[in-house]
Amino acid sequence: MAIILNEGAQVTLHRTTAAGHDDEGGNIRVTAGLLVAEIPERGESWSLRFAASHYDTEKQIAITKDGICQVSRNKQVITVFHAPTIVVRFKEREMEMKGGVKILAMLPRLKVRLETLKWHWETGQLIGGGKVKIEGERFSAIADGLEGDTTLQQISLVGNIHLTWDTESGDRK
User: Fold this and answer.
1) How many structural domains is the chain composed of?
2) For residue 9, is it left (φ>0), alpha (ψ between -120 and 50) or beta?
3) Tens-place pLDDT, residues 10-19
4) What is the rounded distance in angstroms from the CA atom of residue 86 to the CA atom of residue 25?
5) In the chain, which residue ranges form alpha helices assigned H by DSSP?
6) CB 81 within 8 A of CB 96
7) What is the mean pLDDT of residues 46-53?
8) CB 16 within 8 A of CB 4
9) Domain containing 134: what range?
10) What's the pTM value of the predicted model, to 2 decimals?
11) Which CATH number goes with the domain that contains 89?
12) By three-state DSSP, how is residue 3 classified?
């Protein structure tokens, strides 16, 4: 797996610009950046675009604001995540999305909303916290939490689960 902080002059949104550096603490502020995690064994790429970020070089933690994370598998977008705050912990190999996470899964077509979501990129494990709301093509669901595996492309609702089927499609409610 490779973690790359892209620097380039394509579009302003993609350019990584160091706005400031604190020599004592090893802190770097970045505006309008793109962080890419590639997982070749799964043919997967996670691209995190953000408006602003603070990176602690000693702890190897990046805290981004207004992040959009796009997941591609075999060069096709499969999922898009939006979160006000995304924390990337490089030593722990995890990304935590906070503050009201919105997920759009392309296949199957799902919209998911939850308070927090943590992804361990080595194992593919997902853990979602807070109330989870899911809207599918023929159902909607509310649950206490979410667990999943990006490697297997599976999610499970946990805790108290309320599932509603779309009665117009002939399914039961």
Assistant:
1) 1
2) alpha
3) 222 233 444 4
4) 21
5) none
6) no
7) 91
8) no
9) 2-169
10) 0.78
11) 2.60.450.10
12) strand
